[in-house]
Amino acid sequence: MRYWFATGLLGVCLVPPLRGSSEWIGWWPLWLVGMPLAAWWALHRFRLPPALPAAARRLRQLRPRVQARRRGGRRASGFGRRAAA
Could you list the mean pLDDT of each consecutive 10-residue stretch along the chain, which spans 85 residues? Predict the structure, then answer.
């Protein structure tokens, strides 16, 4: 996978027509760089880089933990009400 990724990356960087798209295949950089990179990541069982969990933990601490509430405005007639029997 590393070989295919490196070859695709070099191809996209050095050959300008490979930066475009094809009617049959689609966007070339996706298939030459993105898909081999995703396959390589899948071979490693989707492990994240070591610094990423620490950054995610810091972001979670910065976010407010308040649940959203409904606005107290008027509702459209009949919307949200149960029919009276």
Answer: 84 88 83 88 75 72 73 64 60
